[in-house]
Specification:
Mean pLDDT: 78
Helix content: 25-40%
CATH class: Alpha Beta
Low-confidence stretches: none
Distance between the termini: 57 Å
Number of domains: 1
Largest sheet: 4 strands, parallel
CATH topology: Rossmann fold
Strand content: 15-25%
Number of strands: 4
Strand order of the largest sheet: 2-1-3-4
Shape: globular
Number of helices: 4
Amino acid sequence: MTIRIASLILSIALGSLCAAQAPVAPPKKHLLVIGEEKGYRHEAVSHAMATIERLGRQTGLWETTLRTDAEALTKKKLEYNAKNLNDFDAVLFYTGGNLEMNAEQKAALLSFVRDDGKGSSAAGKGNLGDGGNGVQRQLADAARGNPF
């Protein structure tokens, strides 16, 4: 009887030790993908957005929110529980033409990268609201040393 009790206690102890050492999956990242196009419409934009979303879902590494406008590029509360920059870990731009952003949106995006340590990347032929001058350069400068 004593051996059974000792075996039971040993089994419980080893089981809890193994459970305590089980790797914990890191929390999923939240990615905002903006695919706004101005001027020429290219099929690659919607395909790229769908591919990014599918890769996140299949790997389980991130959840994707797809947008075709720049409304979410703010830290202000939006109507109808719409997500803003505070809800994301990174923004991926896949745009064509100039992305329309006002001064507050540009400042919020720069703060998102520089102050919050979040990520930003751009693909395609678009410009981030300034013909490629200024915001894109400032984002690159803000990201230097950012571990994201």
